[in-house]
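Data card: per-record layout.
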Amino acid sequence: MSVRAATVAVAALLVLAGCGTGPATTRTTTGEGTSASDRVGAPGLDALRTKFRFFAEDTCFDGDPAQVFPRCGRFVTEIRNVVGQVRRDAPAAAPQADATEAAVDRFTAGCATDPGTVGGGDPATCGPAFREVQEAVQGMATAVGAPG
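The structure for this 148-residue chain is written out next.
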């Protein structure tokens, strides 16, 4: 093997050896796992506030509930997914997270669709149910200190 080929092989092995460890792949032996935002170093509460800034840009956040609810399946799923993070990273906002989860459960019981699909449901029933989701999410955003 030539010196050049050996040098390239050693360099490649060093790079690959470095890929196996680090904050994104290191596991702890105690406690629960960390969130993706924790693995990349962003503080959990700051990551939550960033998520809520993005949620606020969605028409599902504050649009006319009777008109937007059929197209908000993905929004509802994202909100359901963030509730646990709110409880973990902003414990003072846990009561609002509970209220949001309850509103989402009531809405999904008869009105929600799968993410990315257009839903049905009676606007006279689903509009007010989705308004409860919007109000709960807006309250949760305020509770975690997201600018609104």
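Known properties of this structure: The CA atoms of residues 60 and 72 lie 6 Å apart. The two ends are 64 Å apart (CA to CA).

See the next section for split statistics.
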